[in-house]
Amino acid sequence: MSAKEPLRIFVTHTYQEHEELARVYEYLESRDNFYYINCSDPENIPAGGEKEAVQEHIRKQIESSEVVIFPVGVHAQDPELLKFQLMVAQVFKKPILAIKSFGDTMMIPREALEAADEVVEWNDRLITDTAKRLARGGGEEWDTIEFNVDDLDIPDLPE
């Protein structure tokens, strides 16, 4: 993952503000060296808000993504629109990463469990690592910690 090849992410939304939607972006932004393009457009509902226009707008957003992130707490705002988004993700064969409701205060809807490739807790590293793995394959990445050996207090070994 590099700035030259950012991960393309679609985060499910209902065209309304929601604390879990905002939290997803906070978590993504908090990770060093995690580069992504937001394919979601939750602030620009198509003019008139007609169902067909909204669905086409959603289709285009999901089609351009590599992975779909579904914060489960958003589901209650508009279950039908979220169900549509999960269905479109499956049609386009986009992996779906569900994130349990914050504080685990809400049951995960059955259709989300059935659609999700993985379900994770709210943890920035877990979310970003799982999104990368689902979208592009590969194993877990490890952080590298650099230190100066001269700074370590290691006693000399007897000869």
Fold blueprint:
Elements (H helix, E strand, L loop, with lengths): L6 E5 L7 H12 L5 E3 L12 H13 L3 E5 L7 H13 L4 E4 L10 H6 L2 E3 L3 H13 L23
Number of beta strands: 5
Tell me the helix content.
25-40%
Low-confidence stretches: none
Number of domains: 1
Q: Within the largest sheet, what's the order of strands?
A: 2-1-3-4-5
Q: Which word captures the global form?
A: elongated
Q: Classify the beta-strand content into a percent band.
A: 5-15%
Q: What CATH architecture would you give?
A: 3-Layer(aba) Sandwich
| Structural class based on helices, strands and sheet pairing | alpha/beta
In terms of quaternary structure, the protein is single chain
Written description of the protein model:
The chain is an alpha/beta fold and 159 residues long. Helix content is 36%, strand content 13%. It is built from 5 helices and 5 strands, in the order E-H-E-H-E-H-E-H-E-H. Helix 3 links the parallel strand 3 (67-71) and strand 4 (96-99). The relative contact order is 0.17. The model has no long low-confidence stretch (mean pLDDT 86).
